[in-house]
Design brief:
The chain has about 150 residues and is an alpha+beta fold. The protein is built from 4 helices and 7 strands; from the N terminus they run αββββαββααβ.
């Protein structure tokens, strides 16, 4: 991935957090807004454009792997980055500290999803409320993807 085709987030707070986190080598802007919950920066290719996209997600780590929870605040549809990761699962990096590292991403289902979901809710209990909202509005089960270092 090269930075020349990077399209920053349309959301100012996401843009600023990603920029500050990367610029500081993961020493600043390390929590999601006022929650105090640590974040990671995920870099991926856009599904339609192929451009580089970056997001900050809650840090849900277990044995060196990371859950990427496509909650979108419990909205009826999944966030755009979910489609990006499905389209380019091996063109992804995670930054959890000073430097990004390459990962492969896969969606998890069944018992494996349940385990990762439990870990995610332990980090950010509001995910459970988001699932209730997503189910009520559209029947959507919030996708959980797992990023594994390559």
């Amino acid at each position: 991935m090269t930075e020349h085709d990077y399209i920053p987030s349309a959301l100012a707070w996401v843009r600023e957090q990603v920029d500050t986190y990367e610029r500081s080598g993961g020493t600043e802007a390390t929590t999601l807004r006022e929650t105090g919950i640590p974040i990671i920066v995920v870099t991926m290719r856009g599904a339609a454009t192929g451009a580089i996209r970056k997001i900050a997600l809650m840090r849900v780590e277990h044995d060196g792997q990371y859950a990427l929870v496509a909650s979108y605040g419990g909205r009826p549809a999944s966030p755009a980055w979910y489609r990006n990761l499905l389209a380019h699962p091996d063109d992804v990096t995670v930054q959890d500290g000073p430097a990004p590292f390459p990962v492969s991403v896969r969606e998890v289902f069944g018992d494996e999803r349940a385990e990762w979901w439990e870990r995610a809710v332990a980090v950010f209990p509001t995910y459970a409320e988001y699932q209730i909202s997503a189910t009520a509005s559209s029947g959507r089960v919030i996708p959980v993807l797992v990023a594994t270092r390559r």
